[in-house]
Design a protein that fits this description.
With 217 residues, the protein is of the alpha/beta class. It has a single domain, classed as TIM Barrel, CATH 3.20.20.10. Helix content is 40%, strand content 19%. It has ten helices and eight strands. Strands 7-6-5-4-3-2-1-8 form an eight-stranded parallel beta sheet. It is globular. The chain starts with a helix and ends in an 8-residue tail after the last helix. The structure holds pyridoxal-5'-phosphate. The site of pyridoxal-5'-phosphate has 13 residues, from strand 8.
Length: 217
């Protein structure tokens, strides 16, 4: 099927209250424009440099989401335009985002990335560490960031029960802190389970563009 066809199929299979972030990492401008021309304007990238390059080349009205690990020294490059950072995993990073947001006269929306997978490779904080950040004095002082929700990635496994349990644990934690409005969970392989478990934002690449040539992150 065409990219526009894949996009339409995904859109019709997710509920209206779930936001679709089309993950454009590794894909060229002309392919991304097919999605844009089909009317979709919320895109996710996992690398700062790639996001900056694409932001320069693509239309202004695109909402750019940073979904991959973010190093503090690179925050300044995306601070002028990023609309949501999904992958915040330290107070130090939040402080830097706050500083760069202030320089740009902005309030940058962020999600805290929570570690729910049973894997060594995934970034994020565990539930206790997230609570420690949210209740810290340092966090209270940050006026140019707003934590609007949580993000989590399930284990990369065929075991649907395990994926379901991991997403469920994040949803329970999300509900417990009823200050959030975005729960970002689910990608091509597991978005249906994530939605069943209460996701409000899914991040989908491969199902729209086909497999990436190389695995990044
Ligand atoms: C690449 C990526 C996705 C999308 O993965 P697909 O399997 O292509 O849908 C979602 N979230 C994050 C954090 C990613 O890095």
């Amino acid at each position: 099927m065409s990219i526009a066809g894949n996009l339409a199929a995904i859109k019709s299979s997710i509920p209206e209250n779930v936001t679709l972030v089309v993950v454009t990492k590794t894909h060229p401008i002309d392919k991304i424009m097919e999605v844009y021309n089909a009317g979709h304007k919320i895109f996710g990238e996992n690398k700062v440099q790639e996001m900056v390059d694409k932001h320069e080349q693509l239309p202004e009205d695109i909402e750019w989401h940073l979904i991959g690990h973010l190093q503090t020294n690179k925050v300044k490059y995306i601070a002028p335009f990023v609309s949501l950072i999904h992958s915040v995993d330290s107070l130090k990073l939040l402080q830097e985002i706050n500083k760069q947001a202030a320089k740009n006269n902005r309030i940058i929306k962020c999600l805290l990335q929570v570690y729910i997978a049973n894997e060594e490779t995934k970034f994020g904080k565990d539930f206790d560490e997230v609570e420690a950040i949210l209740s810290s004095k340092e966090f209270e002082q940050l006026k140019n960031i707003k934590i609007v929700g949580l993000m989590g990635m399930a284990t990369n496994t065929e075991n649907k029960e395990q994926i379901k349990n991991e997403f469920h644990s994040l949803k329970v934690f999300y509900n417990k802190h009823n200050q959030f409005s975005i729960l970002s969970m689910g990608m091509s392989s597991d978005f249906a389970i994530a939605i069943d478990e209460g996701s409000t934002m899914v991040r989908i690449g491969s199902l729209i563009f086909g497999e990436r040539n190389y695995q990044s992150n």
